[in-house]
Backbone:
DNA sequence: ATGAAAGCGCTAACAC
DNA sequence: GTGTTAGCGCTTTCAT
């Protein structure tokens, strides 16, 4: 059996290709009887319109791309769930690209999205991203783009974020209130807004609360893979005067803090209080249970996708004017008690 | 500035479209000087060949699909990382479809992969999947397919799995050795080979070790969402005679067991020993640390993708004859001590 | 080394 | 309500 296509099906049914095409898309121009004939034959001969021929002709791909740092992180997993839920409802396909924090890869992937491969793009940038050119290029091609969580400040585009500053602020306040004297904010980037904003909230709270607060040491940067990060954190925990409070700006760091403490036999919360921006499911059953700034990851993904679809529909509700903010929730557990 | 395409670029450069096409793909037919002219112009005018026009003409999409139950599960996240690593190296694009254990969705997604949308498919089936017709259809279209982890027994195709039977067997032995008298195997499906094989290994070990072992009660099925699962597990933990050992066949169940125990104030491992098939990163820092059958998730994904690419290259190394098996590692931690 | 032209499978404008 | 046909942007013979 040869590969079926619209022309073969047309000749089998003695109908024109135009009629088939319209019937397949359930056009009102076609009679119900003909539609039924076409659908039945399509099923019988296993005919599905070639999506790329269709994309070429209609200049729509029915596909969106999601570019993000990684998937093995509960925040991003949940965000993908949200995105997928919307895409699926719209009959759209989702291309996933993982940058693993490499700017080079991010640029390559963004460029891959040009020339009609996708109708829209959702992106959470890498911790390395400093230049906006690759994104600007995409915008010049009129491909809608929506940032979620990790946005890029210099670019004007719709963005879906959480209340990073506030949460940084409240995290610091909580630790101070619990008696911490020497607190560090663990960051993964000097440029990512999620980090700088959370850090700024943290710093402002500290400056308000602690006299002679020394900003310069309060932010501790952790780059590299998990092992490097753990070593780096171990160094911090061994330094004097003893650090007694930590705000982890992302999930990954919190886990490394716990592992380092386990090795060093540092008791949480007795010797060290920890709170983390995290959606990790196991937070309540960790040893000890982890206080978290729980981000609405699913809703951030969902909302970003919904905005992207309105943009792709050619509508503009002014989303680019101001980031959409979905608040996080601070859940205190044993790690800060 | 109008949308660029090969014809416009050709007329700008006073070169034929054929030459442009060949130059863009670095054909040996084209002189270096011409190639350089073309590449420079392509950069200057932001020209990228339309991928769908190319796909239509060449009948290759440079895209693979991954269909899996969910992404918010460390096993699948890691598998996706492995898959993506291979795809990226080959310059391929990855479409992701999440079934959330719905067979209907799985069928829809598989059908979406027909008609040249993808060059190949990686799939981990839902716990509901019982009929192979949707997959068979794809095979009839000669689209290569590779199963990873959750395979479908009735279909002949390459499969990448782990040593499920052995690990089920050893898990049971471990719990017996640690003194458990009343052990349950928590399963999510009566048909999924990963469950039935793990269960069979478990049952065989139990039958060997325990006199008058009652098979009928030993497997406990958990379906539904997390809350339903937790309620169901709570019921089990409250029943008499007291269950004192649990093998969780998937990660998700282990977390629910911990949460149920927390609520019921059941002490692990004193009152209940737990071991789980899981790759969860937080296993060592749970309260108590969780003994796991740690699956080589990244390698399973990577290996499945590699096999898919050999198939798409038209090679056949007989992978379909026998599943590729990558062994898991049992790591005992405090939850079974 | 370069170019002309056919055609991948589909859609949409237009004719009937 | 159905059919004819041009052409989406590219690749690939086949000529030159």
Residues:
């Amino acid at each position: 059996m040869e590969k079926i296509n619209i022309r073969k099906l047309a000749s089998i049914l003695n109908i024109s290709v135009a009629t088939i095409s319209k019937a397949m898309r359930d056009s009102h121009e076609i009679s119900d009887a003909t539609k039924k004939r076409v659908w039945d034959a399509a099923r019988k001969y296993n005919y599905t319109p070639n999506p790329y021929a269709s994309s070429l002709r209609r200049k729509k791909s029915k596909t969106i791309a999601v570019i993000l740092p990684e998937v093995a992180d509960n925040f991003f997993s949940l965000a993908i769930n949200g995105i997928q839920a919307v895409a699926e409802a719209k009959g759209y396909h989702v291309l996933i690209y993982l940058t693993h924090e490499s700017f080079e890869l991010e640029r390559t992937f963004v460029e891959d999205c040009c020339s009609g491969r996708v109708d829209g793009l959702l992106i959470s940038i890498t911790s390395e991203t400093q230049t906006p050119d690759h994104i600007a290029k995409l915008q010049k091609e009129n491909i809608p783009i929506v940032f979620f969580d990790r946005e890029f400040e210099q670019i004007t585009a719709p963005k879906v974020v959480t209340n990073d500053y506030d949460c940084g602020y409240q995290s610091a306040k909580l630790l101070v209130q619990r008696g911490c004297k020497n607190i560090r904010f663990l960051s993964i980037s000097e440029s990512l807004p999620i980090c700088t904003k959370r850090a700024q909230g943290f710093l402002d709270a500290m400056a308000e609360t602690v006299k002679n607060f020394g900003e310069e040491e309060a932010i501790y940067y952790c780059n590299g893979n998990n092992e490097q990060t753990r070593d780096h954190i171990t160094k911090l925990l061994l330094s004097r005067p003893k650090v007694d409070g930590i705000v982890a700006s992302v999930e990954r760091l919190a886990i490394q803090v716990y592992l380092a403490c386990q090795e060093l036999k540092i008791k949480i919360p007795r010797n060290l209080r920890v709170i983390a921006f995290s959606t990790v499911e196991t937070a309540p059953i960790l040893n000890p249970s982890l206080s978290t700034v729980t981000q609405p990851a699913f809703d951030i993904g969902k909302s970003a996708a919904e905005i992207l679809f309105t943009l792709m529909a050619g509508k503009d509700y002014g989303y680019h004017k101001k980031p959409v903010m979905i608040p996080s929730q601070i859940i205190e557990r044993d790690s800060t008690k």
